[in-house]
From TrEMBL:
This is Phospholipid-binding protein, PBP family. Pfam families: PBP. InterPro entries: PEBP, PEBP-like_sf, YbhB_YbcL/LppC-like. Residues 100-120 are annotated as: Disordered. CDD domains: PEBP_bact_arch (cd00865). Belongs to the UPF0098 family.
Length: 172
């Protein structure tokens, strides 16, 4: 199962939408993503790792005007475990501009993660590069809560019109 998810993730990364990847050949609008808990390139506070108990960190974003929905993917590219998706949230109301700590916006749905569970799966590898990527989409995905990881990533990739990312390098 993990091998199939990894292959799907790598295929999507190579498809140009930037899901799990670093770049994007498509000309996408830019979303500004930040957190009051850490800066881009800084370590992720361990409260939001498997050592802590706070759940997901709070996030803020801007630049999603024109979107029909918003999605969030948290992933990493640990040199030890390879690509891993820690959280997928989709069908977020496009008027939403922030996500609280340990929170899911009302009406949004969560897909499965690489470990097959639904919800935030806190990262554990101290030397990973953890990416919190917000996507503006030109449609709602209308998938069920707990939708398959490959299905949600494919839906996000095919509807992305803007993207922004906040990266935590390592865990404190």
């Amino acid at each position: 199962m993990r091998a199939a998810v990894t292959v799907t993730a790598l295929t999507l990364a190579a498809s140009g939408c930037g899901i799990l990847g670093g770049g994007s050949p498509r000309n996408l609008d830019v979303i500004n993503v930040s957190s009051p808990q850490f800066r881009d390139g800084a370590p992720l506070p361990d409260d939001y790792s498997c050592k802590g108990g706070q759940g997901n960190p709070p996030l803020r974003w801007s630049g999603t005007s024109g979107a029909k929905s918003v999605a969030l993917v948290v992933d990493d590219s640990s040199p030890h475990s390879g690509p891993e998706v820690h959280w997928v949230v989709f069908d977020i109301d496009p008027a939403t501009t922030e996500l609280g700590m340990n929170d899911v916006p009302r009406g949004a749905r969560q897909g499965t993660t690489s470990n097959g569970k639904v919800g935030y799966a806190p990262p554990c590898q101290a030397d990973g590069s953890y990416r919190f990527t917000v996507y503006a989409l030109n449609a709602k995905l209308d998938l069920k809560q707990g939708a398959d990881l490959a299905e949600t990533l494919e839906g996000i990739a095919s509807h992305t019109i803007a993207r922004g990312r906040l990266t935590a390098n390592t865990i404190e």
